[in-house]
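Annual report, structural modelling task.

Input specification for the iron/sulfur cluster complex:
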Amino acid sequence: MDFTIKTMAEYAAEGKAPEVLFWVGCAGSFDDRAKKITKAFCKILNKIGVEFGVLGQEESCTGDPAKRAGNEFVFQMMALTNIEVLNAYEVKKIVTACPHCFNTLKNEYPSLGGHFEVVHHTQFLKKLMEEGRLKIEGGAFKGKKITFHDPCYLGRANNEYEAPRILLEKLDAELVEMKRCKTNGLCCGAGGAQMFKEPEKGNKDINIERTEEALSFEPKVIATGCPFCNTMMTDGVKHFNKNEEVAVKDIVELLAEAEDL
Amino acid sequence: MQYIDNVIFLILLVAGFGLFTKSLLKIYRNIQLGREINRSDNKSERWETMARVAMGQSKMVKRPVAGILHLFVYVGFIIINIELVEIVVDGIFGTHRFLSSILGHSFYSFFTATLEVLALLVIIGVVVFFIRRNFYGVKRLTMKELFGWPKHDANWILIIEFALMIAFLKMNTADWVLQQRGLLPEHGSFPISSTLLGPIFSNFSDGFLFFTEKAAWWFHFVGILFFMNYLYYSKHLHIILAFPSTWYANLEKKGKFNNLESVTKEIKLMMDPNADPYAAPAEGAEADVPSKFGAEDIFDLNRVQLLNAYSCTECGRCTSVCPANITGKKLSPRLILMKTRDRLEEVGKNIDKNGKFVDDGKKLLNDYVTKEELWACTTCNACTEACPILLDPLSIIFEMRRFLVMEQSAAPQELNLMMTNVENNAAPWQYNQADRLNWAND
Ligand code: SF4
Ligand code: SF4
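The model returned the following structure:
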């Protein structure tokens, strides 16, 4: 990165607190594909001049995959540790690019003592746009066909369908909706800890079914708002040998590209 | 002997309602076998939800064809109930069309005419449903999991409703013709039966018409009692239980899964550097710890989940949107609820027979629901979104997963690896926590 990412510890040492804590998440920290999403988001924040901090080495898994697998012990161990760290920095507002982190921090941490304002990166950017801090122009995507895959943990789990679409509309692209979208959106197959295991026997993998649907519109881009959906759809596109023609990109990557960041 | 009709009527009425009450009490008892759950918060929102979803059928219109037809049949069900008032009074006191005496001539005409139109709509509804279900091949209605009783049950209900409505129209037609002939006082207006069946019935003799009127009346009455008592054995319990099920529905964000308090206590103790690991547990502390984590059998599920199992309409809207099911996996959220009900019924019969539950060596998990089904769920909430009466099969799947993992350590190997990684490296993959910020310097 051509600017420095500051940690909460560094802010604290200066006796300051950033506007928002960026919760990077495990995928965003370690997965090579997801790291690009992380960086794109940081570039946008940096460009607009939003002061943000990350936890860095002090961040751990929110516990989401353990919880969905049924392991409440491991989940709560993670949650209580994270809450201790977050509370120690007196964190008020958290933004994250991962709907699973978003859901867990927002819905499951409060009853364990973690009360924060948690927003998904698309919600955060939408707000900045409304405030006039973020300006988006179509650029590279003008007129191109984009379809958006709703992440279950942003959509059905938390009723957020509009923020990603509002951002995408600003790209002046041709937004096409799949038949199964919004409340009827089809899962990419990664949720509920499925990401970490082989799927059960069936006649197809879920991500193949989903990608097939997305590809039937012959889009230039399949837009995602979740690092796990991104992996699943990317695999799906490769499965159909379409990776030359169709890109799978997170919304913040599209925004960063439009702005040439 | 002139009161014999009235006496028979009363006996049937009392027996019918008595049996029905007995069934309801049994259902109530069985539901009480589950764990307690507090869902009495937000009362006004709960009433509103029930009014909108159960009475207003707000989720049915998502599939317009089925939604509108269902509305016909649902409204028809309500007529049967209004009709029942008149039937009961006439039956006990030997009156004829009692409501006409209190509603007044023109309003009674309006009332009977409305019922006639609704009866016709019900007939249209059930006929189309019958065709859709048996000949048209709507996938969710023809899946293998419905073979046997569930399929017959659905058809029986349609046939009963059809027969009830036909009897209703027959009764009205006979009455109307007799009124035309001046043999019965003129009460009511019968636009449907007079046009549909009237021409045929006009050829019949007075005696036969009187007989038909009475016979259809009795058929209608006995039919209603039968229908009511049949409900217990049927997926059509939803016409009653949809109301409490929507009232007790989960109002939280769908993504919010509950945190087990007993676990919180244990972990807080573990994390507290001042806690004495050898200290004896405080008095009464044991009592808070549930005997089990998660659910292995119906006793470990909560009462709302058991109520859900009785309320399920087996419509399969959940299964038809389940990503696992769509891609050929064994999981079907509808089947999870159907199996939960089957097991619950089995336990209920066991209690009826033995006075209390005697271990039968069976469990909901494994004997009814397999691990393979449970592990296929992506927790996507498509099923809970699709259910027209806000049932929550996902919560049952999730509780059973908890049991598998926390009580039996029986997760798939890859998930065990993931969980160990989370525990040791604070990430689901085997990376070092110290490397978390490496991306910033790439
Ligand atoms: S939550 Fe589970 S059972 Fe429900 S639709 Fe999704 S995968 Fe199927
Ligand atoms: S759970 Fe709901 S959607 Fe699924 S079959 Fe039962 S009533 Fe229908």
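Chain B is about 65% helix and 0% strand.
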